[in-house]
Design a protein that fits this description.
The complex is a heterotetramer. By secondary structure, chain A is α/β, with parallel strands linked by helices. Chain A has helices at 11-14, 48-62, 78-91, 103-115, 141-155, 172-185, 203-216, 228-240, 256-264, 275-289; strands at 36-42, 67-73, 95-98, 120-123, 135-138, 160-166, 191-198, 220-225, 248-250, 269-272, 304-306, 310-313. Chain A starts with 10 loop residues before the first helix and ends in a 13-residue tail after the last strand. The relative contact order of chain A is 0.15. Chain B has one domain (44-292): ABC transporter involved in vitamin B12 uptake, BtuC (Orthogonal Bundle). Helix content of chain B is 75%, strand content 2%. Chain B has helices at 2-29, 39-64, 72-89, 94-118, 123-141, 158-161, 172-190, 192-202, 204-209, 214-240, 253-261, 273-292, 297-335, and strands spanning 153-154, 166-167, 170-171, 242-243. The radius of gyration of chain B is 21 Å and the shape is globular. Chain D is α/β, with parallel strands linked by helices. Chain D has a six-stranded mixed beta sheet with strand order 6-9-10-3-11-12, sandwiched between helices. A six-stranded mixed beta sheet of chain D has the order 19-22-23-16-24-25, sandwiched between helices. The chains are: A alpha/beta, B mainly alpha, C mainly alpha, D alpha/beta. Chains in contact: A-B, A-C, B-C, B-D, C-D. Bound molecules: adenosine-5'-triphosphate (2 copies) and magnesium ion (2 copies).
Amino acid sequence: GGGATTTREDTAASSGAAAGGSSAKVKVDPYAGDEVKIAYIAHDIGTPNNQGWKEGIERECASWSNIKVDSYGAEESAETQVQIMTDCINQGYNAIILQCSDGTALAPSVKQAEEAGIPVITVNLDCSSDTIHSALVMAVDYDAGRMAADKMAEQMGGSGKIAIIQGVPGLERTDNLEKGFRDTIANYSGIEIVDAQSASFQKDTAMTVMNSFLQSYPDLKGVFAINDAMAEGAALAAQSANKKGQIVIWGADGEKDALAMIESGDMAGTIYTNSWDEGSTAAKIALLMIGSEYDYTCLTATPKVIMEPIVVTKENVGTIAEEDRW
Amino acid sequence: MKRMNQTTMRRLISIGMLLILVVLFTILAGAGKGKFFNFDNLIEVVRDASIPAIIGVGVTFIIITAGIDLSTGSMMALVGMTMANIYAYTLLPFSVMMLAGILVGLLCGLCNGIIVAKFNVPEFIGTLATMSIFRALTYIIAIRDANGVIKSQPMNHSQYTWLGTGIGKFYYVIIAMIIIVAAGQITLKYTRFGTNLYSVGASKKAATLSGIDVAKTRLIAYVITGFTVAIGAIFTTARLQSATTAIGMDFEFNPIAAAVVGGVALSGGSGDVIGTLIGALFMATLENGVRKLSINTAYQYVIKGAIIIAVVIFDATYKARMDRKAREEGAKEGLE
Amino acid sequence: MMKNFNWSKYSKPIILVAFIVVLSILRPKAFLSLDNFSNVLWSVAVIGIMVSGSIFVFLIGGIDLSIATLCAFSAVVVVSVTHMLGDTPVAVIAGVLAALVVGALAGAIHGIIITTFKIPAFLVTFATQSIFLGLAMVFTNNKIISCTVPAFTAIGAFKILGFPLPVYFMVIIALISWYILRKTVYGRYVYAVGGNPTASEISGINVKLASIVCYVLSGLTTALGGIVLASMTQQASSGTGAGYTNDVITAAVIGGVSLLGGEGTVPGAIFGAVLMGLLNNGLNLMSVPSTHAGLVKGLVIVVAVAFDAMQHADQSRKKVKKVKKASA
Amino acid sequence: MAGNTLIEAKGIYKSFSGVPVLQDVHFEVKAGEVHALMGENGAGKSTLIKIITGVYTKDDGQIYWEGKPVEINSYQDCQKLGVACIYQELSVIPPLTVAQNVYLGREPRKGPFIDYAKMNQMTQELIDKYQFPLKPTTVVENLGIGQRQLIEILKGLSQDSKLLIMDEPTASLSGKEAEMLFKIIQKLRSEGVSIIYISHRLEEVYMLSDRLTILRDGKNAAVLEKEDIIPAKVIETMIGKVVDESAGSRKMLHSDDNAEVRLDVKNLTDKTDRYRNISFQVHRGEILGLGGLIGAGRTEVVRAIYGVDKAASGEVWLDGKKLNPSPKASILEGIGFVPEDRRNQGFIPLLSTTKNVALTNYDIVKINGTSISDADELAMSKRAIQAIDIRPSDPNKQVGVMSGGNQQKVVLGKWLMRDLKLLIVDEPTAGIDVGAKDEIYSILEDLAKQGVAVIVVTSDLQELLRVSHRIIVMRKGDIVKEFKNVEVTQSKVLSAGQGVEEEAE
Ligand SMILES: Nc1ncnc2c1ncn2[C@@H]1O[C@H](COP(=O)(O)OP(=O)(O)OP(=O)(O)O)[C@@H](O)[C@H]1O
Ligand SMILES: Nc1ncnc2c1ncn2[C@@H]1O[C@H](COP(=O)(O)OP(=O)(O)OP(=O)(O)O)[C@@H](O)[C@H]1O
Ligand SMILES: [Mg+2]
Ligand SMILES: [Mg+2]
């Protein structure tokens, strides 16, 4: 579908939604040594970003013996994540750090948690905009896409063919990234996006997709992969087709291996965000929120902490210290 | 009469194993507020089990005919997205929206049925193919924002979202599960169609020779599954208050696992819906309980797998003994 | 002449040729090149390797849902062991051996549990799937562990005569597997056990042992697939090999392997893998958007398999007229 | 008695995979007659029945019911006309109960729901009426093959049809049950029901049938009226040669006690008490018949000797060597075994004759290194095909689609390829035509002449008397009687099996 959606009147929903308020908040103070437990609920615990966030949160809390962090993975399913949310609310966690599988689908659970007095700090993806909650720590994907596009265009000398390697369709974050990228490339008349194929975030599939790009477009000059794993795959494929360094290959995320490939000249660049930093920031906010007098219901929008994406190319990759590589 | 006792015994055993699991988690993760064993948590376990159990009713029918359906997850997404379109682009009443969803579910089931029963495509591969077809159709009809990017469609009108709640903690989805499981069990045990399902599963050839329309029976089982999937999709989207293209991703093995753990043989001809319900409760208890252990996710996976294996080994050993006994009884009976 | 043509016997090569012809016409430049064929083969190599072993399990009427996570676990093992022993070529060999041992052990455990307790393979491998995933996570601490030791990456990337090594692995493993099934006594036993375990038992076959060996072989090739995959991608994680369970089963079934057991051949299964590779390649070359690719793939699979099934069913009907003529 | 034509099939053609099975077959049954259908294994009898009952679609031809052309496309269609059929391959559904099987598809209902009480009661009435050893609520999977056959018969009888078709109903019945069935058939005939009766047991056919149609190689060979049904003529029309079918009461062949003992079974006792303290010997060159009613425990005993099941206690000695029975060890020691449940235990349906024959013989097939010599394997199967005339003679034919008799020959054939010391055959001729039966008997006799000890378990009394040198009768797990070097009759064996002592003795 496309086009404008219809608005349905719902009189019942708006009233009483925030009725519970913060009254239920339990009086605890992590800084005073009260026992506190925080839940981190990841979209999928097995990926580097999620692991980075998890470690960031754990590092932040490690210095307090009274703070316990439990991590859960939702196996890439919003339904499962909602079940875990409900579970954590029942468990009486003092704060929840949530990496939404799907902002819209998780919105009701976030609301429920906040109403139960549990601050929810979302990382990386907001839940639907009308669901106000304690805080959001995020990188702006659309902007990241724009930044990658500008830098890539520059590296390509403003002309040539680009192909995009996509992830699983329908995921808000990566779709925004791609959108930002495309919108910006449109400004360069010499650059054409010739193809876009999914490799489902998989490195090996990306190699296959890249191979067929190389067949279809012998004069391909640039490849933008929506995550680093796929960019690495594309770079390996280019390498084995003896085109190492001849194609401008970009990824996004900034994981350790991608940075190494930029150093070796296999990849041209990536968008780096510091997952550890993001995680520890989220944890800091969570600790501040727990037991504070702060009432989220008086907010008109969720407070956002924007983690500025950093464009990494061969020139500046050296500035990312080893201990910041996740 | 002896056999009656045997099935009852087996049922009691599987309920017993479920209880043991509950006791185990109660000991390991504790009872009381915020722990494993308390009303709030246990009712959530039942709630988590209800979608696999509802869809499991249809899937049980299919497995009893010795078939399988791997497309239920994608089908859920397609049903959800159809309803999301109606929600977003029309002002049709919600009842019509849900009927349309059910219709899509029935149609999907019909497709599976035709592919499997009429074109004789092996079930596993046929429904694996429709799994990707239904998901692709979901993407194609997905709702996009002004930029053409796929987005999740909120469906948060209170006239719809009430379905995701309950009377207090007695969630409507649990009530729906009880109704559908009961209806499924009655259909299975007290109607000709139910008997036909068992016959087809036990031996398609013998069923044909007994005058049963094997293709039709299989087809109807798939259509019924389409219906239960649609019901599952309605309750899921109502709880999520939205529909996304990712609904039901990797879900397909959940109802199958529930059925198989609950004693429905993949080779067909045995098992029932109550077994599947117990299986679904078992799996949900396992998921929930393991989360309460506060251990690394990695070990959670290992423990889950190990418990399933332990339980099925116990069950199989026990079943083998019961079967041997029953055969001896049967043999003796023949002599009189 | 044409009427006598045995469609069901040749339907597979015909489908392949038809596919190649269609793609050649639609995308002559990109499709018809040695490089592209090499790429297609390379992309099916892992599936080809794994299906050559899993076919043993399918032939005895079993199934293996743990392919993907066992693949991940063995990939993790090969990389970890290589790192542990100092990234030398010897370490790589040790790593490969360790991964193969893990695969064989996993298979043996499957086989022993399944045959001793007579539990459906579906349930056992459904459970171990979770266990292997957990183990892979434990070993990697949920991270991607990369390995760029040349001796290791050569496994996946080194080329001979324009074709990368994995293609040769696939061919060799497929040949071995074909030889075992087609030529050896054990191969005969596998088909017998799959076709009728009771009768096999009475015919003096050690059904239990034969089945366990099938699972071990499947575990071995799955591990080898994991090793090759890790080498190709120069890394391992708990997500390595995601999706391969379905791919392997699909390849086998498209290739005429019956999941009920007793029916199917290695060339058939390899055909299935190649057909899937061509299909993916074709969809990529034709720039079919990924949202629509699943639709096309699903339809092609249904049509191909239905066509095959109809051929079987129609056999008898076709010859009728001839018989009548003869007797008239 | 016999009236108008009830059903008539004209110009029927049918082929499988291009091989014609029926060609221009004509078949007609009159109201109220018992019409026998005979022919060799693979002649096409079952196929014709399946076409009449809508299970197979015919390639050509027309069926008339009471003179009117009808289209029968499914078993339901023919049920509507009033035809019931007991198929050769049993169509009972194992997970269902006896009652559910009997009324499958015709369950009495209350509203939309099955009325189990009524169904069980109706089944019980039927069981009482015909005195079958069954209970309505027993789950079929726990019953043996003979009992399953009875259920199948009950199912056919329950339909109150105008035409009842029975495809080899007595193949797995013992004498007692068969007698019951014959009485039932005669009663039905007197009630005006037509019956199509297929059997390879000639004496049954002579006794029961009013008319007889003979098929040969898928074509009509003859239709005989009652007065023309002369054994020799029937056999000759059927198979093209004369076979001596005479047997009733005769003196046992001499069993030589002084011959070397090949098999010595000592105190074999079952774990679950299906047999107790079984001791007997079989000598070199002797054919030992094992008689008894269904469920007497004979199958269990021979399975234990061969090693498929383990006995709780007792010993088995072969040629003075104590065995530790397992199928593999038994085969290597020179024991062959033909199980009673051919389809489930005898062969691998998807595999060819060649591979089925070779399955137990890979220790003697030529193997180069690890590679089986295909040529030698094929040569072996050709020898087997030749030795017992397996048809079709194509060694690559899937055994699963062959006729029952030929399947049995494949199962037997593989044992003839090796040097045997002992051959155990359980119900060797169930469902096998006269010609083939005779061949099997002579094969067994040949083997005996070569010094092989043979154990024949059979419920066919005529067969028991025909082949055995010595007879042991079992009853409820015990050996109750031995007939050696004496005059025996069917009734003597029967009464021993039933536990009735004959006064005459
Ligand atoms: N479904 C089938 N597919 C292929 N061939 C078949 C099939 N059914 C029967 N045939 C073949 O048709 C021929 C006739 O078989 P049919 O079962 O009618 O013989 P029959 O006269 O009943 O023999 P028997 O006395 O052994 O039961 C046989 O050669 C058999 O191999
Ligand atoms: N595989 C089996 N499954 C179930 N019941 C069995 C099985 N084998 C034997 N039985 C039962 O055990 C009893 C003993 O049977 P057995 O076969 O030893 O007797 P038998 O004298 O050989 O009779 P039959 O003429 O039936 O072969 C039978 O009544 C049968 O019901
Ligand atoms: Mg027949
Ligand atoms: Mg017997």
